[in-house]
Design brief:
heterodimer, B: mainly alpha, elongated
Chain lengths: ~325, ~280
Amino acid sequence: MIKYIVRRLLAIVVIMFGVTIVAFVVTRLVPIDPSARFLGEKAASNPVIVAAFKARWGLDQPLYVQYLVYMKNLLHGDLGVSLTTRQNVLHDLRTYFPATIELATAAILISAILGGLTGITAAWWRGKWFDSAARAGSLLGVSIPGFWLSLIVLYIFYYRLGWFPGPGQLSANLEPPPPVTGFMLLDCLIAGDFSLFLNALWHLVLPAFVLASFSAGLIARTSRSSLLEVMQQDYVRTAHAKGMETRNLLFRHILPNGLIPTVTLLGLAYGTMLGGTVFVETIFAWPGLGRYAYQASAALDFPAIMGVTLLFTLTYALVNLVVDLMYAALDPRVVYK
Amino acid sequence: MKKVYVALSRLWNANHMAMLGLAILLMWLVVMVFAPQIAINDGIEQDIANRFQPPNAQHPFGTDNLGRDIYSRVVYGSRISIPVAFVVVAVSLSVGGMWGLLAGYFSKTVDEVLMRICDLVLSFPGIILALAIAAALGPSLTNSLIAVVAVSWPIYARLMRSLVISMRSSEYVDAVVALGAGTPRILMQTVIPNTISVVLIMATLDLGNAMLTFAGLSFLGLGQAPPTPEWGAMVSSGAQDFTKWWVALFPGLAIVSFALAFNFIGDALRDLMDPGLRRLL
């Protein structure tokens, strides 16, 4: 098992290496002179400053040397300086990452619970009205773009009904807690301010549900069909025939086996969510990496784009590793060597 | 003809939603072709005095920030958004299909190299890579198309490769090889015709996704340049002030209806293809 984990981690290192190459090539696709963009007009007219800038990033060298310089800087934790925030990219990533993780984790929990329950209920009452409604609902979930749904729920639940707060992580009149972990909910608890915690939690509801909608639909569809498959198995029929109670049959035989394939979907769902944060965070003014990625790409801020891409891809790879390990833990037939 | 009828009636019995999907699709095709007849004006005409009008008799979907008629823009937008989805899928299918064909048919080394490249692309969260590519190439319709294709071809490569590998050991391929056919002939005349139906079903399932991804890039301002109407970009102009609900609502509904239509059809196709599940329906 440990050997397997080590091998997977090594594979992730190899993948990340490939990812840096792809990201590097992509960010060098346009022949924009980064020195002019970065230094500003005044400094860019000073040849000494330009030369120093180019030497630092190896821009006066051929492309493969530029890549090596980039990698050297990267391995020293130097991702460059963002053109938009004028901060070190690594610092930016550290600042914005927690908000995204908080949002995406809330969304994955919502989609697993909502999608799972819907799938189970639909499979149990297959062919009944709930099944049809669930089917239509889950197809709707995977057909609605998050950027549109964000606007619609903001209009209805914030502007019209006033049930939920508007964009942002906290109400504007509240003082944010001292940043200890960077995670808003945790920091509120650490500060011991429960009303602040509730306010932050309340702000999380709408964006998390919007972000969850796609995966919830996906999970509902997959869990329904895999449960139906298990319900057709001989051992379920046998258990039924020997008079096992329905509740036991469902919780001991059908669900444990039928929900395992759904677990593998969570990794994919998490990847979709990381991408979805670009839209949801932008609209909900959520200070996370998705919004940062959008602002960076709008400003052609390549060091920042590169940084976000690397971090998102790394997160995605690690989440997939965790999902595979969960899969093995849940299904004793799966043994990794 | 009879075959088509039988297939259609089976589809209807299996799933009323699939027929609904086909109906929506047909409606959009009609709108797309007869846009000049259906729209009120060309959708570009500005009328600043009447900006942000809520839906009324003159403007059934209201007007946007420049006083343009949103109904006409949704109608004309179909001429960009729908062909784009088809182009993205067609190009992804061709590139990915060829990629998978080569990987599946040729030696282990070729296979290994091609599939590792595939894995590499798949290791990015899709929209992030597309965003980076579209931003690097600069905002334009073509560049955002390239960006969407760049992230959507690998699934076709994977599918095609697995189909080809399972076919390679079949007897009819052995027979063609024994008859002395060359590689191009085997690929073109035996392998492709026997795999294309599955790949095309996959493509149908993917059309909705293609539209969603492209609309997303447009929403972020990386697609079609203004003032030409495009659904994703139109939703984006509604995002500036979500209290003017009609600006985003109608183009968004257009996107949803198109994606939903293909998901309805795809869902039914999947049920028909999967004998295990077909039994249960």
